[in-house]
Amino acid sequence: MLIKFTEAQELLRDTAREFTKNEVEPRDRAMDENGFDWDLFHKIAENGFMGVQIPEEYGGGGGNFVDGTIVVHEIAKGSASAATFLGAHWLGANLILDNGTEEQKKKYLPLAAQDKIFAFGLTEASAGSDAAGIKSVCEKQADGSWILNGGKAWITNSGIADYYIILALTDPSAGTHGISAFILPKDTEGLTVGKFEKKMGMRGTATCELAFDNIHLPADALLGQEGKGFMMAMQTLDIGRFNAAAICAGICEHAMEIAKKYANERKTFGKPIKAYQGISFRFADMVAETKAMEFLAYDAAYVKDAGKRCTVEAACAKLFASEHGLQICIDAQQVLGGNGYSAEYDVERFVRDIRLWGVGEGSTEILRMVVSGSYLNS
Ligand code: COS
């Protein structure tokens, strides 16, 4: 690999890999059937993964973005859902780390680093790709407090989160500059958690509707500057996107491992099926494309760690990983023939799981807009 991990990062990778083998992978099939696994969550928290990127002074592991990418990449090799849960938690926690006042950081980051779950609430039922089209409104009161009305949809970790970072209009006439972010604790009066979505995949993550009915928030619930919420959300999504690319790479590596074992063991016409070029060349493409996914994901994380904007790198990483990743999972399924269609061999689940990344945290169409816009207009 061109990108060289430090010794500490190699140790983190090995720790996350070991944890995934022992604790994560054995539970993934049950999570697909039963939903979010609280027992696994407690183990994730006990092992310090919740706060990998939170500075040590706030009780976290003090890692950087590459460290976070390493963790979700490894965990995705055992469970796409568990990795996606963690990535969504970090989206919320990162918003506080990057934009919070010292008081907010001291209050919330130690909780995020321990065992309180955070979620990032941007999308609404009628505003996904057009993120600036949200309708939730947060009105400032004379005493500086806020009243929040509206709702959210498709928020990963909703229904299980302790804290939501909610994006809402504070000046509906100001477009993207009229959106602000707020910290909303789960037990706030006026917050209703709706039904859990029945999803094609990623069934080990919780996804619900949220409704806000005249929620009274104190003045210090505002996160970052008033009117800067859209930009903060976009910066956070950049991080979400390169982590999503790493999750895709992890899912693909898991699918390929299962397909490789099968290709070695399964015989047709007197030979293991790996002896046929129709199968072996498939593996060549799968290996090459998965390597490219890793490069793109870690490259974007490195750019972010260097303190630079990584919007294009992150969009390229997720665009490539979501499209090629889906095809790799389908190809791995094909290697297994009829068995690939059975839940017993797991790969059908990966096809369903990875499909999320063609639409979540920036659809492939939005990512094409981001990349082509940056290239053609520069
Ligand atoms: N980092 C920092 N700033 C950013 C940014 C980023 N990644 N992306 C946009 N901005 C800034 C722009 O620079 C611009 O600032 P100024 O007005 O000060 O110049 C502002 O934010 C508005 O940007 P833009 O004009 O590009 O906004 P658009 O409404 O045209 O939206 C897209 C742009 C389509 C790219 C955005 O809405 C998007 O990413 N949509 C998908 C949302 C998504 O991923 N949803 C999934 C749900 S989250 S699970």
Describe the structure.
The chain is an alpha+beta fold and 378 residues long. Helix content is 50%, strand content 15%. Strand 2 (137-140) and strand 3 (146-156) form a beta hairpin. Helix 4 packs antiparallel against helix 8, helix 5 runs antiparallel to helix 6 (102-113) and helix 7 (229-265) packs antiparallel against helix 8. The longest helix has 37 residues, at 229-265. The model has no long low-confidence stretch (mean pLDDT 97).
Short account of what is shown:
50% of the residues lie in helices and 15% in strands. The chain has helices spanning 7-24, 28-34, 38-46, 65-76, 80-99, 102-113, 229-265, 277-305, 311-335, 347-354, 364-376; strands spanning 118-121, 137-140, 146-156, 163-169, 179-185, 191-196, 207-217, 222-223, 267-268, 271-272. It is globular and about 80 Å long.
Estimate the strand proportion. Answer: 5-15%
Indicate the mean pLDDT: 97
Q: C-alpha Rg, in Å?
A: 21 Å
Order of helices and strands: HHHHHHEEEEEEEEHEEHHHH
How many DSSP-defined strands? 10
Shape descriptor: globular
